[in-house]
Structures are given as structure tokens and as C-alpha cells.
Amino acid sequence: MNFLTRLLITALVAFGLSYLLPGIHFDSLVPALIFALVLALLNMLVKPILTILTFPITIITLGLFLLVINAVIILLADKLVDGFKTDGFWSALLFSIVLSVTTSLINSSSTKE
């Protein structure tokens, strides 16, 4: 599946989750599309650096600290994208978990076809 399709899926899922999860707010679909692009860039550029810097903590927590890194990436996207707001760390953590699981399920089911 190509990059633009994955961005569109992420944007639509994130926008839908803003109606289901407390603490996540999008003004419209356009900020959700921008959010998906910013999230992809942050995951490509910032997440590897954070993962390397926190490698000892990640080992000690058996990988659970990666959830914290994902929440930090969501909070960074909150600061960079106008029209997207999270109410705090716990909202970002829950949003990152549900967003990751949902988009993974959609992407894996669409590649089997």
C-alpha cells in the first residue's frame, strides 16, 4: 500500500477517534490530514532518536517505554499542528495505542486482498 493511502487511513482513523476518545480534538478533517503527515515525519525523524536515547529504560521496562515515546510523539504533533489538541499525556497515550492498533489492523487487512 502506498504512502498516501496510509496517510489518508491514519487521518480518517484519527479524526474518527476524536469523536470516540475523550481528550482528543480536531477542528475539521484538514487538521487530521496535516496531523497524519506530521506524525509520519515525527515517526521517521524523532522517534528513532528517542528510542536510541531511552534504550536502557526500554530494556528495563521490557519495551513498555515505547508506549511513552509514542505518547510524546503525539504531544509533539499537538504542538505543531493547528486544529489538533490533546488534553494531556494520558489522553495522548490512549490515543496513540488505539490509533496504532486500528491503523495496523486496517493496513494488514488491506494488504491481504
UniProtKB/TrEMBL annotation:
Q: Which residues cross the membrane?
A: 30-46, 53-77, 89-107
- Cell inner membrane: present as a keyword of the record? no
Superkingdom of origin: Bacteria
UniProt keyword list: Membrane, Transmembrane, Transmembrane helix
The keyword Cytoplasm belongs to this UniProt entry's keyword annotation? no
One Pfam family from the record: Phage_holin_4_2
Q: What is this protein called?
A: Phage holin family protein
Biological source species? Flavihumibacter stibioxidans
